[in-house]
Amino acid sequence: MARIAYFYREMSEYIDIDIKLLRARHELDVTGCPGRWPNPFVTWRKVADADLVWTWFASWHALLPGMFARLQGRPFVVCVGGYDTACMPAIGYGHQRGGIRRLVARAVIALATRLNPLSEFAVGELRAMGVTGPRITLAPLGLDPARYACAPERDARLVVTVGGVNRSNLDRKGHEPFVRAAGRLPDLEFVLVGAWMDEAIEHLRAIAPPNVTFTGALSHADKVTLLAKAAVVVQASQHESFGLSLAEGMLCGATPVVTAAGALPWVAGGTGVVAASQDPEALARAVRAAIALGPAAGAAARARVLAEFTLVSRAERLEAIVHGCGGGGPIPAADDAPSGTSQRAA
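Now predict its structure.
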């Protein structure tokens, strides 16, 4: 068992999953960092008490833990792939566009003993930064099928996308193209699931046709209930290092429609439709084509997630990282699911 000092900026589904997986085998001291900097005195003590230090994303909140880990001779693990490794000036996204954020992200990455990208696309972003070698351990996210059920009957008219509603996500997550595509398909029902984070919701409402619903934030259970009925799950992003909400929809049996951005086609794995572009007309054509594929495509999408993106696989790779840093015991067997999780398909 290793003692892990774990730092994150904002809690999310994937961070919560990792914390639970690591806690099943190790002692975790978890610190949320809502501001740019964790308390330096508390951080120094937490690092001193740990066998290794772990953080999600190479950004401001990770710099002090990384520096203190280096000074105290502790291994430092960073999960990367997102705003930290992205460079998309056209939509104002990504630390690698330049300036102080780029310097901070690269400093954190330079301090890391191990880097955990979530996809080959994220590995490619690291390579574009000149980062290669054995420090990199590819470890895709994993989902628990017990938390994602399929409905006995699907609504062949229901199209869903998931993501927080804010100005950045109008383009980055494709929320505006999703809403505009709905106007080309008035016989279908489009639903955007996600918390309303700024005035972007007013913009979307102003352009939305009558067949679009904005749910706001939903509980996990309510989100799954909706995805389990949907014919299609859409991820029309311009950048995704993995696409957790896409994988969630696929695990619920919805047929994926994705853009060719980042890791999305790899996650979909040929089970749905790749839109020619983020253009609303192209997106509408892709949605119509996905519905025409029928329930078999949704079943294939679910089977892909069950085969490729499991908690067991994620737990194994996280354990391998801990083991490689000198912590923990033997690496678990492939069928050794962490305590408190389920690997049984619903």
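The chain has a mean pLDDT of 92.
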